[in-house]
Amino acid sequence: MAEQLTDEEETALELIARERGIHQSEFWKEMDISSRKGSRLVESLEEKGQVEREESVYEGHTTYFIEPIVDPTDLEFSLLMADNMLSPFVGDDEIDANSDKLTQWVMTLAYQ
């Protein structure tokens, strides 16, 4: 069972997720808290398995880049589907914008 987050941790995690990652030096400014409190907050989220930090250089200073840990079961894959067809943009192939495959997928979207 995942540990319960405090209201402040929830707010912090929402910011990190919305930004799709943020430098710790910007994080505490955005949260309007001291750097010390920001560091403790991030450490708590990291201990609870909600974020991961990687050392980074930002604006000439060493800091951490904080990213949310995404649970694959929380992802919404239905947005890649049109009826029973998977988006042609999923995969390694380059898609020609004029291809029949793309046109068919888009037309299926239009009639859902």
Written overview of the protein:
By secondary structure, the chain is an alpha+beta fold. The chain folds into two domains: 7-68, Winged helix-like DNA-binding domain superfamily/Winged helix DNA-binding domain (Arc Repressor Mutant, subunit A); 76-110, no CATH class. Helices cover 40% and strands 20% of the residues. The chain is built from four helices and five strands; from the N terminus they run αβααββββα. It has helices at residues 7-19, 24-31, 35-47, 100-110; strands spanning 22-23, 51-58, 61-68, 81-82, 85-86. The strands form two sheets. Strands 1-3-2 form a three-stranded antiparallel beta sheet. Strands 4-5 form a two-stranded antiparallel ribbon. A hairpin with a 2-residue loop joins β4 (81-82) and β5 (85-86). It is elongated. The mean pLDDT is 84.
Short structural description:
With 112 residues, this protein is α+β, with helices and mostly antiparallel strands. The protein has helices spanning 7-19, 24-31, 35-47, 100-110, and strands at 22-23, 51-58, 61-68, 81-82, 85-86.
Number of domains: 2
Q: What is the N-to-C succession of helices and strands? A: HEHHEEEEH
Structural class: alpha+beta
**What is the radius of gyration?**
20 Å
Count helical runs: 4
Going by CATH, the architecture of the largest domain would be Orthogonal Bundle
Bulk shape? elongated
CATH overall fold name of the largest domain? Arc Repressor Mutant, subunit A
Q: Quick one: CATH superfamily of the largest domain? A: Winged helix-like DNA-binding domain superfamily/Winged helix DNA-binding domain
User: Roughly what percent helix?
Assistant: 40-55%
* Biggest sheet statistics: 3 strands, antiparallel
| Strand arrangement, major sheet | 1-3-2
The parts where pLDDT drops under 50 for at least 5 residues are none
Class of the largest domain in CATH? Mainly Alpha
Mean pLDDT: 84
Distance between the first and last residues' Cα: 38 Å
Number of strands: 5
Portion in strands:
15-25%
